[in-house]
Amino acid sequence: MAASSEEKAVTLSVTGMTCASCVRRVERALSRVEGVETASVNFAAETARVTLGAPVPVEALIQAVEKAGYHARPLTDRERPNPAEQARGTLIQLIAASVFAVPAVILAMAMDIAGLHLFGEPNLHAWVVLALATPVQFGLGWRFYRGAWASLRQGNPNMDVLVALGTSVAYGYSAWVVVSGRHDTHMYFDVSAAVLLFISMGKYFEETSKGAASQAIRALLAQAPETATVLRDGAEMEVPLDAVQVGDRLLVRPGQRIPVDGVVVDGFSAVDESMLTGESVPVERKPGDRVIGGTINQHGAITIEATAVGADAALQRLVRLVEEAQGSKAPVQRLVDQVAAVFVPVVILLAAITFFGWGLFAGDWQQGMTAAVAVLVVACPCALGLATPTAIMVGTGLGASRGILIRNAAVLERTRKLDVVVLDKTGTLTEGRPQVSDVVPLGEMNQDDLLRLAAAAESPSEHPLSRAVVDAAIEAGLEVPPATRFEALTARGVQAMVDGRLVQVGSPAMFAELGYKIGPLEPRIGELEAAGRTVAVVAVDGTVVGLLGLFDEVKPNARRAVEALRRLGLRVVMLTGDNARAAAAVAARVGITEYRAGVRPEEKLAFVRELQAQGLTVAMAGDGINDAPALAQADVGIALSTGTDVAIETGDITLLHGDVAKIAEAIALSRETLTTIRQNLVWAFGYNVVALPVAALGLLNPVFAGAAMALSSVSVMANSLRLRTKGRALARAAGNPYTAPVENVLQANRGPAIAMALAFVLLVVPLLVFTGIDRGWFGNEGGAADHTGPHG
């Protein structure tokens, strides 16, 4: 592959990682490559996100990963690792190994616990068990040997070392017993076979759960059709999506997905954009309107002109944003990484201490070996490595499906501490599409001339209020003359030469600053502002000739959004550059009691800093244009975006479709994701804290240690997947509709639950039966009275 001379970041697919220790090793290997700025590995997604400070060949990155003992390749949309395929391979291995492992475990228990032998021949029985356990040890255990060797070559042992070492000790000792003919000595083939069986089973369910956790990315990519109908020379041509170029005209029939981003040039239709925005109601699209690739054309056929294809399309940008969020690390992960870095060596040392402690102080070397194997097996840090990334993957994926883009994992921790949410008025609480509602001429000026001159002066400006004045003039059928010497006075108004006359349009404050006497106009201005209008004064050649009243409709769900934020315990403040009376009118309609009017962009920034200086944690929500400084300064910046602009860089959280009601839902989702991470870490750390001393004291059979280790990983994955079942509850708590199917966590995890239960039964039933035989519970006196097995 060619050198990545222009790329600033590369995402690699990394396979072969088995625990949190592997994550640190891959990151360290990538960080050592010259030109690499940062390397962040996601264990759950099996990806590495590498940012580059200088051009670095992708091959150099791959080589570094391979040298560390893993496999890597560039991640492309068409060649993404499929966890389902990996799980299928593991399942085949598991089934094949079970043919040998299950009879090996049962026969080993029969011999060790009850003293039963095939045909009454201990020698034959032992050799049969050895023959059954050997393919399990070297077949099912191969992946652990391979991983252990790779990690040891790098001087950084991982969980594979623990599994390989523990099972090899049990198997090797037992094989020596058989070969040496010491049939009066206990063997541990049941330990080696059952531990490998259980841990491999845990791996299988881990891989299937990873597939479920990464479903959001695959679901997004699945939205893009494979072909498009291009109109060339008056004919329709079906071409692969990769062949579509900017400027091509495409025909989209009813029911088809729109292939790429574009602008409608012909036809009318309703488009379902729910996959990007979470909005269940289709939106009308007509000539001139933008459409997004991957959305569904519901009704009439439309012709669009492609404006963005490939990596520049909104869908691909959205996928990249979600991937970056899923690959990021929460600050709490730093603690996990530090623990994982020393965890395996410490466990090996603890196992050695356990073995020699039992041998030297209790004189029981066999018990020491059993306890040491239990320590090695039970301490595998799989759950620790999965705790954070799986929750982030599920949480950010759920958010993406609801039109909520959480930029990175660090945002999750900051949302937990939020005290205040500051809301911009225009475009956040209001529609952001002001309209001229009042035209008030003064003196000899008539309405049409007033509107025409004002529109001419405003025409060079892109400000929403300016566009509203121009649109009003056009809708009134007026001819808008050209303007010259245009000058915009930031956040106050404009002035320009129109038909040789100086026309000024702006706020009353601007006219007061310019020295106009607007006192006589105050009553009329007050009436308009009290009705919620934004007032623009118009002057021609130094004389005020009229007033314009502009009205921006409050969003229908704005009041509900404010109430939802209050239910989350947050203080809500509104900021606006509008006048005090208009601000008061909007605040009253949406239920906000605290607001500031006449605030300029720099003053919004100062207000956020003022709140932070009081020790408060602040979220700022705005449309990401003139609110950008305040969004960047806030602890959590919430940008309201349209569906075609998914890459607002200033927001920590981006809400597609500009839906203000999603603010509370985004905060609630972030908090719930963080709660899940903490639950997972408590479970993963707690499991090791409790299990390790129990194993070292010889109170935990290695077989059950293997089962517990597998169960811990499955439980962490299941807890993360539980987030997906909360989508409806989170949406409804914010007062939002939720139409997607709700998953049941028990149904989603019924496979692992049933399999683990059956595996436990496989162990417990033979254990009870053979123990009963050994101790005469079934009336079989003398069954094996002189036999004391390792389980008994």
Summarize the structure.
This protein has 792 residues and is an alpha+beta fold. The chain is built from 28 helices and 26 strands.
Structure description:
The chain is 51% helix and 17% strand. It is α+β, with helices and mostly antiparallel strands and 792 residues long. The chain folds into 5 domains: 9-81, Alpha-Beta Plaits (2-Layer Sandwich); 86-216 and 328-394 and 672-732 and 743-775, no CATH class; 227-315, Calcium-transporting ATPase, cytoplasmic transduction domain A (Distorted Sandwich), CATH 2.70.150.10; 404-422 and 556-578 and 589-656, 3-Layer(aba) Sandwich (Rossmann fold), CATH 3.40.50.1000; 430-553, Calcium-transporting ATPase, cytoplasmic domain N. Helix 23 links the parallel strand 24 and strand 25. Mean pLDDT is 82; it is low at 1-6 and 782-792. Belongs to the cation transport ATPase (P-type) (TC 3.A.3) family. Type IB subfamily.
Dominant shape: elongated
Strand content: 15-25%
Biggest β-sheet: strands ordered side by side in the sheet: 14-26-25-24-15-22-23
Between the first and last Cα atoms, what is the distance in angstroms? 60 Å
Q: How big is the Rg?
A: 34 Å
Major sheet description: 7 strands, mixed
Helix count equals 28
Number of domains: 5
| Strands, total number | 26
Mean pLDDT: 82
The amount of helix comes to 40-55%
- Give start-end ranges of low-pLDDT stretches: 1-6, 782-792
Helical/strand content category: alpha+beta
Subcellular location: Cell membrane
Protein name: P-type Cu(+) transporter
Membrane topology: Multi-pass membrane protein
EC number: 7.2.2.8
